[in-house]
Amino acid sequence: MRAKYVLSEVMVGLWRNVTMTVAMIITLAVSLTLLGASLVMYKQIEAMKGYYFSKVEVSIFLKNDATEDQQHALSDALKSDPLVKQPVIFETKDQAYQKFKVQFKDAPDLVKATKPDSLPASFRVKLKDPKQFNLIHDAYKPKDGVDDVLDQQRLLAKVFGVLGAAQNMALAVAIIQGVAALLLVGNTIQVAAYSRRREVAVMKLVGASNWFIQSPFVLEAMFAGIIGAILASLGLVAAKYWLIDGTLKPLTTLLTPVSWGRILWMAPILIGIGAVVSGVTGWITLRFYIKK
Amino acid sequence: MIRLEHVTKTYPKASRPSLDEVSTSIEKGDFVFFIGPSGSGKSTIIKLLLHEIQPTKGKVVVNERDVTALRSWRISGFRRQIGCVFQDFRLLPNRTAYENVAFALEVIGKSQGVARRVVPEVLELVGLGGKEHRYPHELSGGEQQRVAVARAFVNRPLILLADEPTGNLDPDTSIEIMRLLDRINRTGTTVVMVTHDSNIVNQMRRRVIEIESGKIVRDQPRGVYG
What we know:
The structure holds 2 protein chains of 2 kinds. The two termini of chain A are 28 Å apart. By secondary structure, chain A is α+β, with helices and mostly antiparallel strands. Chain A is 72% helix and 9% strand. A 4-stranded antiparallel sheet of chain A has the order 2-3-1-4. Chain A has 2 domains: 2-52 and 157-289, no CATH class; 64-144, Alpha-Beta Plaits (2-Layer Sandwich). Chain A contains 10 helices and 4 strands; from the N terminus they run ααβαβααβαβαααα. By secondary structure, chain B is of the alpha/beta class. Chain B is 32% helix and 25% strand. Chain B is built from 7 helices and 10 strands. Chain B has a 6-stranded mixed sheet, sandwiched between helices. The interface between A and B is medium-sized, with 17 and 24 residues.
């Protein structure tokens, strides 16, 4: 009986105020979609960092006129350097050119315009601690025959900076939308409580417990939160299907692929967040509104 | 049953207290009128007994329990021991007489089976047999107040509080409602009634506590309005 009573009150409450209910669900859905996207991006960036930083190299490019002696001296120095992870790889001009041809096979004009001789030979080393790049840079840059010391990590840092900024933006918009959504939840609950004020007054008078008086309203808010979260999860699935596996497909070699598991995992998380946050908001609103 | 110990209530921004050091006690099964002019503080006593407001100073003891020290989650349980009737009936307009009374049972967790057994009984008791399925707007004022009394009494409370229950009724109907309250009192329920209806007080000849400017000025066992 009580469950039936509470559920019918929830449905009547949502229906009575249907425009507000829809507005509440839409804002909740948008907010949760962005929150979910932001969480997926965060996980993705962490995974990409692990993937790339394990492969990141420091390249020591030789001058075109570097002699064999200079090259040997460098090789010995690197092999005995405690900061450097062995083995040290030497890439000749020819190897560099072959690699270049493969990497830019889609741009035959560029390959044609590049002479085999114009790419520098280089040492490729990995650091035991990638953060100590500066020490390597300062140690090898002034040596004879060295043209430049380049750290790929610096390039990656820029890429991750852009990705991180996008993630922060999504998070910021999610929070702003979230605040708007919660204000709407609070307002809807207030309207619902106002339209049932006679019932609430009688319930208080005859000694209905607080949770019994409040539960239909709180459930109303939770219901909206759950619907919003389900819509948000569908939004993420759609984004995975059409955006990540569709439009952005060519980039997946650069951006490590986003797995379906990661997307589907967001659904229970978002539903949990949606239900709890809007339920708590409804409950707090009621404490201000009904209790007095 | 009910004890007020040096109770003072000053509303915020009020220049003088509504109740000023009021002490009295009401025994189980008593029938007590609180009388006095408007603004004398009579209704404040009802609100204190219901724990709708807290006294500024002093203690309110109901059924051996200090109401002022009641934890918020115990208030609902406390109110189930108290029935309440008001001048404006406070019925739900979209529910029938039966549903109004059943609602009071429903929201404190009684089953529909209990309601089906108890509600017709109590409606019969207040003299509304046969009108169970009328809506409030289809009932006269006196009948609406009977529904309210039925709702207050359906849980068999220890105490029935009545805040000017006859204030909106004509003299004949008022007397009928008083007979009803008297019958309820005879079942052992303590009745506390706030009124300024002199006719009724004079006819009933029950204990009268007169309040003026927040102080008790008279307490008579079989009193008149004076």
